[in-house]
Design goal:
The chain has helices at residues 56-65, 83-91, 109-112, 133-149, 212-226, 241-248; strands at 3-7, 14-21, 24-29, 32-41, 47-53, 74-79, 95-106, 124-126, 175-179, 184-192, 196-203, 231-237, 253-262. By secondary structure, the chain is an alpha+beta fold. The chain has two domains: 3-98, 3-Layer(aba) Sandwich (Aminopeptidase); 102-258, Aminopeptidase (3-Layer(aba) Sandwich), CATH 3.40.630. The longest helix is centred in the middle third of the chain and has 17 residues, at 133-149.
Length: 263
C-alpha cells in the first residue's frame, strides 16, 4: 500500500491517492473516498485502466498516480458520447487508438431475415462446444495471420483477443465454426458474460463472398433466440464497412460508439 498527496479538490483539502490492493486505488478527499481506480489485464496481455471519480481533481490525481505503478502502454475504453470522461483521459495523456460503432442485433429470424439462410454447398455449421480444438486453433491462426498481414491483428477490438500462451483461440466453448470436410473455413465467437456479445465473425480470405459469414450469424443468432435472448451486441471498427453493412442488413441498430484510448 502506498499514499501520494496532492493539494486539490472542491474542498481545498489534500486529495490522497492510496493503492488499496493489487491494481486498485482510492482517492481520498478530506478522508472521504472521492474516486476509485482499477487496472485489469485482458486476455491479449494489454492492461486496461478505469476510473470512477466524483470530481475532476480526484480523477486527475488517480490518472496521474496509477501509471507510476503500472507498465506502459495503458489502455481504456470510453463511450464517445461521454465527452467529460474522454477529456479527463486526454488530460492524462491518452490518445484515441480506435473508434468502434456499437450495434444492438436482434435475434428473431423474422426480423433478421436469416431464418432460411443455409451455408453454401459442402459447408456445415458446427455448434459451439462441439468444434475440434485442433482444427479451431488452425483456422484461428490462419485468420490472425491474414489480418496481421493487412491491417494488423492489434487493430481488432480489445474484447476479441482471447490469447493464451500459444496466441490462438482459447477453446471451442464460445466458438461455432463453418466446416469443410478437411478444415474449418470460418468462425463466430459469442460470449455471454453480462450480455450476449458477438466478439468476432471471421472467414478465411479465400472463402469469403460465399455466404459463410451470414450462415454463421444465422446459426448464432438463432441459437440465442431459441434460448429466449431477444438481442445481442456487437462492435464494428469505424473502417469496417463490410461488417457494418452485414449487421445493418439484418436489422441491427446503432447504439452509439466507443473509443479505445492508449497512453
Amino acid at each position: 500500500m502506498n499514499t501520494t498527496p496532492v493539494t486539490s479538490g472542491p474542498s481545498g483539502d489534500t486529495v490522497v491517492v492510496t493503492r488499496v490492493a493489487d491494481r486498485q486505488w482510492h482517492a481520498l478527499d478530506d478522508d472521504l473516498v472521492a474516486g476509485r481506480g482499477h487496472a485489469e489485464q485482458r486476455p491479449d496481455g494489454r492492461l486496461f485502466v478505469t476510473i470512477d471519480a466524483w470530481h475532476d481533481a480526484a480523477f486527475d490525481r488517480l490518472a496521474e498516480a496509477m501509471p507510476t505503478d503500472l507498465p506502459a502502454p495503458l489502455y481504456t475504453l470510453v463511450d464517445e458520447a461521454d465527452t467529460e470522461l474522454t477529456a479527463g483521459w486526454r488530460r492524462a495523456g491518452f490518445t484515441v487508438r480506435r473508434r468502434e460503432r456499437e450495434y444492438v442485433v436482434p435475434t428473431d429470424p423474422r426480423v433478421t431475415g436469416l431464418g432460411a439462410v443455409l451455408p453454401p454447398p459442402g459447408v456445415t455449421i458446427v455448434p459451439a462446444a462441439e468444434a475440434d480444438e485442433t482444427m479451431l486453433r488452425a483456422v484461428d491462426r490462419a485468420i490472425r495471420d491474414e489480418v496481421e498481414a493487412s491491417v494488423g491483428w492489434r487493430s481488432m477490438p480489445a474484447e476479441v483477443n482471447p490469447r493464451p500462451e500459444d496466441g490462438t483461440a482459447a477453446g471451442p466453448s464460445v466458438y461455432a465454426v463453418a466446416a469443410a470436410p478437411d478444415r474449418y473455413l470460418g468462425l463466430i465467437r459469442v460470449e455471454r458474460v453480462k450480455r450476449p456479445r458477438i466478439g468476432l465473425v471471421a472467414v478465411r480470405a479465400g472463402e469469403r463472398r460465399r455466404g459463410i459469414a451470414r450462415a454463421l450469424l444465422a446459426h448464432a443468432l438463432g441459437t440465442l433466440h431459441r434460448s429466449g435472448t431477444a438481442a445481442a451486441w456487437a462492435e464494428v471498427h469505424e473502417s469496417g464497412r463490410a461488417a457494418s453493412a452485414l449487421f445493418e442488413g439484418i436489422g441491427a441498430r446503432s447504439a452509439g460508439s466507443n473509443l479505445e484510448l492508449v497512453r
